[in-house]
């Protein structure tokens, strides 16, 4: 048989979350099959061209999944957040059918634990995650361009270089002791200087990548 070049995705449940996953994967150029028990949602996703193909099926029935070829997909996303029983049974069906990577949406902690127990490889909590992200966006230092959250209290961020740092060297600024952050890189999107030496002069038109606590990053005078 032909070796597949690209990954294929199947999304089960075309509610708000499933539709967003489906449409985004499709726009990124991946082959994605959308399924729902609700015929109208299946028709809608096809009409809006948010999936390569779409089928109406009841995912709690292993045979329905088998007939639709769902078990042949590399990645199956179970996007049935608000129907606990259906979500658990569907995830179990996908794992028992041999799907390698099953991602499931949980709507509560206990839902997440159950999904893990039945074999979900990745459990996501979109409402919880969106709430955390919103709080960060609302309170984030406006100079921060990108954030990589290491743990709930520490991040690596890409920020503008504050005006008051302009023309000063890292040594003079003593960012480690004064601001409790470490500068990992300085530069622009097309070229960053990694591990800049203490003599490196900062320029307000450049960006810097720093690591530190969220509180420390918040205090940068940007
Ligand atoms: P959201 O919160 O993202 O809008 P919901 O959890 O409310 O998502 O929607 C889940 C979707 O899953 C609904 O469109 C529903 O019709 C579908 N669904 C529920 N049960 C099944 C099932 N047994 N088989 C397939 N799809 C299902």
Automatic annotation (TrEMBL):
Domain of life: Bacteria
Domain RCK C-terminal: 143-222
A GO MF term: monoatomic cation transmembrane transporter activity
InterPro entries per record: NAD(P)-bd_dom_sf, RCK_C, RCK_C_sf, RCK_N, Trk_Ktr_HKT_K-transport
Parts forming coiled coils: none
GO biological process: potassium ion transport
Sequence ranges assigned to domain RCK N-terminal in this UniProt record: 6-125
Protein name (record): Uncharacterized protein
Species whose genome carries this gene: Crocosphaera subtropica (strain ATCC 51142 / BH68) (Cyanothece sp. (strain ATCC 51142))
